[in-house]
Amino acid sequence: MLTENETRSLIEFINKFFGLDLSENLKPIALSELNKFKKINRIKDLEDFLNKSTHDLRDSKILDLLEIFLIPHTNFFRNNRQFEALKGEVIPECLANMDHKNFIDLRIWSAGCSTGEEAYSILVSLMEYFGDEYWKITCGIMATDISRKSLGIASKGIYETKKIDNIIGQRLLEYTEQENDGKLRFKEKIRKEANFRQLNLNSKTFPFKNKFHIIFCRNILIYFNKDSRLAAENRIFKSLANGGFIFLGDAEVLSSKNQDFEQLGNGIYRKRI
Ligand SMILES: C[S@@+](CC[C@H](N)C(=O)[O-])C[C@H]1O[C@@H](n2cnc3c(N)ncnc32)[C@H](O)[C@@H]1O
Fold first, then answer.
1. Using CA positions, which residue lies closest to atom 11 of ligand 1?
2. Which of 21, 43, 67 is the last residue of a domain?
């Protein structure tokens, strides 16, 4: 069991540093994981631990604690209409807007990529669109998440075949190899096209030199508290090039700066030039 003070400090800590809005009624599963966490790390009082922690957010224990509250749910081609729009409208428009028509440099970010299915779905869509030409252009995916556990799975690029529906399995065939234990693995040359990095979307600044043409930020900010969500959205907007596109999750709408964006449907918005 957690004391009231422990629960309060935990909720405040996760809220403040990671933006996540935890309900005050922590679920029994979270409570049981928290008790395990305290035991493994010999922590008597969570409030004390959080007060004493130097707030180095890259600290292993803090990240293990955070992991209890992360929701990694994702899928290949989740909301496939967006991937169809990516190939049908978004990529062609990005290419049309490029200054140097004979030098394609397409920058795409999967923010909150979880275990990588989103990033690989974007890559497969790009390869379906460009065919062999893909290997002649400068492109690739920056894929970030706060979860070390999810990023570990994403960079290995190994997934259980039985969790992938047949039609999607067919679509992935060309880009994957069968492992002998009912799993498939993205081919090395495909894996190399995704750059999986740890990034807290609630941090004050993002480490990108160049702006992105396309940003997927789906089903992450819905878990943020209102202020953190607005702040994160603004930082994400700043990372998007003028005329660039942002993809949101099914149940999401932009909460700010609407006048800077044109709504295209299916949760896709374009930043005005
Ligand atoms: C439900 S998944 C969404 C995955 C994918 N974008 C999709 O829509 O299928 C939410 C992801 O947000 C990540 N996340 C939560 N808080 C975060 C934060 N502060 N910074 C970066 N990622 C965060 C979680 O680790 C998790 O992988």
1. 112
2. 67
Share of residues in the chain with pLDDT > 90 (%): 86
Helix, strand, coil share (%) of the chain residues, nearest 5: 45, 20, 35
Q: How many CB atoms lie within 10 A of CB 41?
A: 13
Same domain, 97 and 231: yes
Return the ligand 1 atom nearest residue 200 CA: 20
State which ligand 1 atom lies nearest to the alpha carbon of 110.
6
Which of 22, 69, 80, 145 most suits a substitution to test ligand 1, by most atoms within 8 Å of the C-beta? 145
CB of 118 sitting under 6 A from ligand 1: yes
**Is the beta carbon of 70 within 6 A of some atom in ligand 1?**
yes
Cα–Cα–Cα angle for 144, 145, 147, nearest 5°?
Answer: 145
pLDDT tens track for 171-214: 999 999 999 899 999 999 999 999 999 999 999 999 999 999 99
* Residue of minimum CA distance from atom 7 in ligand 1: 74
Number of H helices, E strands in the chain: 11, 10
Give the pLDDT band of residue 254 (cuts 50, 70, 90): confident
Q: In this predicted structure, what is the pLDDT of residue 256? A: 65
Range of the domain at 17: 4-67
Q: What is the CATH number of the domain that holds 119?
A: 3.40.50.150
**How confident is the model over 222-239, as a mean pLDDT?**
94
Reference 142, options 208, 97, 187; nearest CA is 208
35 and 93 housed in the same domain: no
Beta carbon of 145 within 6 Å of any ligand 1 atom: yes
